[in-house]
């Protein structure tokens, strides 16, 4: 007896229906518009909408072009590299069949094995027939998408090492018994964590660009609204999503426009000088934060529909990137560090030769 198997699509809570947490939503939207920013780390207590927001992001992500049938989701323009199969087709002069699909949000389970993460080579086939066949892993599936790690601070060290290698190079390399296989793996890393359960390794902490702190909303009206909306969603998820479909579509279009307009944003040398001076005065370690602030500020300008970078863009970007990278001052709150960023930017922007725009 033949049975027809149907896939059941999970209905997610709409991203645009999340109450409050504006910084978290903005940070995720900016990374969707410009993956080169470098990812988002969301820290906060349980029940503040962290996981809901990241998973709901899947519904508003733009489409990307991939090589049709490629298990490694290679980009047809080869800008992030190609897997051996696509490379072989290109060398033969064959044209790629291209298809459009939405960016994916791929979950990374805490107990993931190394083979499931990076993929596994068929050693017997490689030795007997000389074929380098790889069973694709999570890093192949997430190429061109978002890798979501809930409780990222609880990841095993060896998994963190693999993620660091792939995030740094944009390539996943699998080596077994002297046999090597590589494929592109460019992704946006989004992690959520509860600081009470332990801190994140410094190496990974430094790689993730935007750090956001979230907490439960204190306003009673907001809390009532959250409960009412959640009850409405649970009663009829499909109707609830339909209610917010126009807002979701508008945000998706805004992200796509921002992505296209990033290169059109005018940035003068003074803006770069200001950001570098800011990082220097705040004694931020390394040079990576300078680049992260600039990328975020430019993307923010494009997201806001402007073609000129402003001081407000730099201020917001600096708060996203630098607040957690400033050396902690004992007995001072996060608000104190945010005020320091504002004060330094205001002072620097008034200096001779530092005018922006």
Q: How is the biggest beta sheet arranged?
A: 5 strands, parallel
How many structurally independent domains? 3
- SSE string, helix = H, strand = E? HEHEHEEHEHEHEHEEEHEHHHHHHH
CATH topology category name of the largest domain: Rossmann fold
Biggest sheet strand line-up: 4-7-10-1-11
As a whole number of angstroms, the C-alpha radius of gyration is: 22 Å
Question: What form results from the Cα inertia axes?
Answer: globular
Structural category is alpha/beta
Unreliable stretches: 1-8
Percent of residues in beta strands? 5-15%
Q: Tell me roughly what share of residues is in helical segments.
A: 40-55%
Number of helices: 15
* The named CATH superfamily of the largest domain: P-loop containing nucleotide triphosphate hydrolases
Distance between the termini: 71 Å
Mean pLDDT: 83
For the record, the CATH architecture of the largest domain stands as 3-Layer(aba) Sandwich
CATH class of the largest domain: Alpha Beta
The total strand number stands at 11
Quick tags:
Rossmann fold; 15 helices; five-stranded parallel sheet; 357 residues; two-stranded antiparallel sheet; disordered N terminus; alpha/beta; Helicase, Ruva Protein, domain 3; 45% helix
Structure description:
The longest helix has 17 residues, at 245-261. α12 (269-281) packs across α15 (334-349). The N and C termini lie far apart (71 Å). The chain folds into three domains: 20-214, Rossmann fold, CATH 3.40.50.300; 220-261, no CATH class; 265-349, Helicase, Ruva Protein, domain 3 (Orthogonal Bundle). The protein has helices at 22-33, 50-56, 84-91, 114-118, 123-129, 138-141, 157-169, 202-207, 220-235, 237-243, 245-261, 269-281, 288-303, 311-322, 334-349, and strands spanning 40-44, 63-67, 98-102, 105-107, 120-121, 134-135, 145-150, 171-176, 179-184, 187-193, 210-214. It is of the alpha/beta class and 357 residues long. The model is unreliable at 1-8 (pLDDT under 50). The chain has 15 helices and eleven strands.
């Amino acid at each position: 007896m033949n049975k027809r198997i149907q896939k059941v699509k999970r209905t997610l809570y709409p991203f645009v229906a999340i109450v409050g947490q504006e910084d978290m939503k903005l940070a995720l939207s900016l990374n969707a518009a410009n993956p080169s920013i470098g990812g988002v780390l969301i820290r906060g207590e349980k029940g503040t909408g962290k996981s809901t927001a990241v998973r709901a992001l899947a519904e508003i992500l733009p489409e990307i072009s991939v090589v049709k049938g490629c298990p490694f989701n290679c980009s047809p323009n080869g800008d992030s590299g190609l897997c051996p199969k696509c490379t072989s087709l290109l060398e033969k002069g064959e044209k790629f069949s291209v298809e459009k699909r939405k960016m994916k949000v791929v979950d990374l389970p805490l107990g993931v094995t190394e083979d499931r993460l990076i993929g596994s080579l068929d050693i017997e086939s490689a030795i007997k027939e000389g074929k380098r066949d790889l069973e694709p892993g999570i890093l192949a599936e997430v190429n061109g998408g978002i890798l979501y790690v809930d409780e990222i601070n609880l990841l095993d060290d060896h998994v963190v090492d693999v993620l660091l290698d792939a995030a740094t190079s944009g390539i996943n390399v699998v080596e077994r018994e002297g046999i090597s296989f590589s494929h592109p793996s460019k992704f946006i890393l989004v992690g959520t964590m509860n600081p009470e359960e332990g801190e994140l390794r410094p190496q990974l902490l430094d790689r993730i660009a935007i750090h956001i702190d979230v907490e439960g909303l204190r306003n009673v009206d907001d809390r009532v609204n959250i409960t009412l909306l959640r009850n409405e969603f649970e009663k009829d998820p499909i109707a609830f999503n339909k209610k917010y479909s126009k807002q979701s579509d508008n945000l998706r279009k805004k992200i796509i426009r921002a992505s296209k307009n990033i290169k059109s944003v005018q940035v003068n040398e003074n803006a770069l000088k200001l950001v570098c001076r800011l990082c220097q005065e705040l004694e931020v370690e390394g040079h990576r934060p300078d680049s992260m602030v600039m990328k975020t500020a430019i993307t923010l300008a494009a997201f806001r529909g402007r073609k000129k970078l402003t001081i407000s863009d730099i201020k917001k970007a600096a708060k996203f990137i630098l607040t957690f990278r400033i050396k902690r001052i004992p007995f001072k709150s996060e608000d104190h560090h945010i005020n320091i960023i504002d004060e330094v930017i205001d002072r620097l922007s008034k200096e001779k030769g530092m005018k922006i725009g």
